[in-house]
Specification:
Largest sheet: 2 strands, antiparallel
Structural class: alpha+beta
Radius of gyration: 13 Å
Strand content: 25-35%
Shape: extended
Number of helices: 2
Order of helices and strands: HEEH
Number of strands: 2
Number of domains: 1
Helix content: 10-25%
Strand order of the largest sheet: 1-2
């Protein structure tokens, strides 16, 4: 996946799904990926359920 998110964050395989501004002024960024390996823990290789 080559997109602006990859270019901005230098993280291959990710895209921004949405951005929220929280009450304290900070932002929460929701990222998505189609790469199952990117969802796995880099240390143990386990993926979250679902």
């Amino acid at each position: 996946m080559d997109n602006d998110t990859t270019l901005l964050l230098d993280l291959d395989g990710l895209a921004v799904a949405r951005v929220e501004r929280l009450e304290d002024g900070t932002r929460r960024v929701h990222l998505i990926t189609a790469d199952e390996r990117a969802r796995a823990c880099p240390e143990c290789g386990c993926s979250p359920p679902g």
